[in-house]
Design a protein that fits this description.
116 residues; 0% strand; Septum formation initiator family protein
Length: 116
């Protein structure tokens, strides 16, 4: 039986390959190092990938807020520089009125619209 195992070991090229290359101390050390750096280290590939995703989300949020700020700034400048715009905005949003003027607010029943 022992002789059969010895013959298999001698004749098998895969066992020789594993013995010489895969179980080499340098290959095992390098493999352990790579596994440690990819999965377990505090600056692992997975953590860095997650942080890059957060950075991308925050950059998208920043761009959104910048465009909203620019849009609101244009509206504010238009509102402050034009008297008719101020009056229109006040009438539409705060229901302000001129003397001797009446305002009618129409309320639509949303339940009747949904049924149709």
């Amino acid at each position: 039986m022992k002789e059969l195992i010895k013959d298999i070991k001698k004749k098998s090229p895969t066992i020789k390959f594993f013995k010489t290359y895969v179980f080499n101390k340098y290959v095992l050390t390098l493999t352990g190092f790579l596994v440690w750096m990819i999965f377990f280290d505090s600056t692992s590939f997975l953590v860095i990938n997650e942080l890059n995703g957060e950075i991308t989300r925050y950059e998208n949020q920043l761009n959104f807020y910048k465009t909203e700020y620019e849009k609101n700034d244009r509206f504010f400048r238009k509102l402050m520089n034009n008297k008719q715009e101020k009056e229109k905005y006040a009438r539409e949003n705060y229901f302000m009125k001129k003397p001797n003027e009446e305002i009618f607010i129409l309320v639509v029943d949303s339940s009747k619209i949904a049924k149709k």
